[in-house]
Amino acid sequence: DIQLTQSPSFLSASVGDRVTITCRASQGISSYLAWYQQKPGKAPKLLIYAASTLQSGVPSRFSGSGSGTEFTLTISSLQPEDFATYYCQQFNTYPRTFGPGTKVDIK
Amino acid sequence: QVQLQESGPGLVKPSETLSLTCTVSGGSISSYYWSWIRQPPGKGLEWIGYIYYSGSTNYNPSLKSRVTISVDTSKKQFSLKLSSVTAADTAVYYCAREVTLIRGVIMENWFDPWGQGTLVTVSS
Per the CB < 8 Å rule, is A49 touching B109? Predict the structure, then answer.
């Protein structure tokens, strides 16, 4: 199985901050990576697929980059509605696997 | 737009079989892969497996011996059965559609939409 790690696992930030989350894969996965946002009691919501393609309707302050084994999700200016947990997920092979998540909390 | 809704018992006894159904509305069940994903309380996400509308399946090896996913295209439903459950199977279970888009030689995949999720507790 491809293992995904995320760093940090938790971050505390203020509204307006630039936030970067890193996802690393245990082996190369090309650009077969998606990012999701999950709020308490809700299903994950797709933000980015193919490592850098913004899902329709997702604010442009979200962006993704990377390929191979290292990927980043960046929120350019954190908004109150962005406080949530973020997961990366790989589509290179089966079984599909997710990162452990990064919780973004209010400072 | 396509919406997914999970249904099934919220409480299952240890050693019994967990059964859930996902109903697809607002779109076709054809030409897509349909997955089950679970999330234990306070923990991360685990992909359980998928079924293609034609009936082919692929399961997570960690659960393969206990999982069966089936599809009923006439009802636009797909179902999950997980046998011999224990407390470790307590989780919110989500159904989701895997979308695959081929652009030339590049393939793009994502899970969207997801159902709202249903909590299944394994307890006597």
Answer: yes
Structure confidence by residue, pLDDT tens digits, A59-79 = 999 999 999 999 999 999 999
Full DSSP string of A60-97: TTEEEEEETTEEEEEESS--GGG-SEEEEEE-SSSSPE
Other beta carbons within 10 angstroms of residue A99's beta carbon come to: 27
Report residue B96's pLDDT band, with 50, 70 and 90 as the boundaries: very high
Phi, psi of B66 (to 5 degrees): -115, -5
> Pick from A52, A58, A56, A65: which is nearest to A84 by CA?
A58
Question: Does residue B30 belong to the interface with chain A, where contact is any CB pair within 8 Å?
Answer: no
Partner-chain contact B62 A53, CB within 8 Å:
no
Distance from CA of A50 to the nearest CA of B (A): 5
Contact criterion met (CB < 8 Å) for B115 and A43: yes
Q: By a Cβ cutoff of 8 Å, what residues of chain A touch chain B?
A: 1, 31-32, 34, 36, 42-46, 49-50, 53, 55, 87, 89, 91, 94-101
Q: Are A94 and B58 an interchain contact pair (Cβ–Cβ within 8 Å)?
A: yes
The beta strand positions in B40-117, using DSSP E, are 46-52, 57-59, 67-72, 77-82, 91-103, 106-114
